[in-house]
Amino acid sequence: MLTYVYDGSLEGLFTALYEGLFSGEEVAEITNNRRYRPSLFSTAKVIATDPEKARKLRRFLQKRLSRQAFQNLVYCYLSESGMEKTILSYIRLLMPAGRKAGGNSHARSREIMAVLGAITQTARKVAYEVHRFHGFLRFRQVRVGTWKNACPNTCTSAHTPDGDPGAEVADTLLSSCGNTHASIDECDGDFYYAPIEPDHNILALLVPHFTARFAGQKWFIHDRRRNLGAYYDGRECRLVSGVEISDQLAASLQGRKAGSEDEEEMLCRELWQEYFTSTALEERKNEKLQKQHMPVRYWKYLTEFE
Q1: Residue 231: which of 114, 116, 149, 163 has the closest Cα?
Q2: Is the pTM of this model over 0.85?
Q3: CA distance readout (Å), 6 to 10, 14, 63, 99, 218
Q4: Of the spans 121-125, 176-180, 252-256, 295-299, which averages the highest pLDDT?
Q5: What are the extents of the domains in the chain?
Q6: Are residues 150 and 184 in contact, defined by beta-carbon separation less than 8 angstroms?
Q7: Distance separating alpha carbons of residues 299 and 306, to the nearest angstrom
Q8: Residue 222 · residue 196 · CB < 8 Å
């Protein structure tokens, strides 16, 4: 069995998919280098990222697919749930040879429905988590000097989608500006910081909502699970990697006062907690329903549960 191993980027995935379509090799699995585990029963082939092949495949997909269908593929990549081989199977169905494949028509139909169902279901999970974080994300005002890593390793410009989220997110993830640094310590004044730990890699999908909602403020959304961040300076937003926070801010996130926030910020948070408590009706308390709509795994960074 042959396993393709790519670098984890969207460009790398498109390259691996291109190779899987046109190399003539029988690919059993496609995985990124972080998830790959050697096996006695499979042979690994490292796929070097090729921007030209990635662009060719993207143009092919955008020509053959609707906006929603292309968006679903991008969302499957962002799900980080091992959907690469399913995506390859789906793209093969778009090829002339895939549409004309012989064999049992009923079995073929079941295979097609299984592939479409898996992609649609995964994309819906990602979209639903994005929707949840539009309401669950909490900003706090912090001081600039609370960062260990002032110049993250890489950055890409993030633009607000205009009618085609899948294409815009793909543009963001495929365009690299590694020579540009986003020095957070150089920004003037304090800014707003929001930590998250989503199940899926949805940071780029959150940017359009919050750049529109808080266009006049400087903010930073930090995916602590993946050490990624989205930094908005009031004009444009950049996606950054290799983000590390200071011990002071880490202590503050654990509910301890450590000097990373001023008195006004602490007062605002206390007032919000009091409001949350005072407006709750004890007679209508339903913890089971609350956890259904607001899962416990999201409580860690919610101000009202500190």
Answers
A1: 149
A2: no
A3: 9, 9, 25, 27, 35
A4: 121-125
A5: 2-131, 137-305
A6: yes
A7: 8
A8: yes
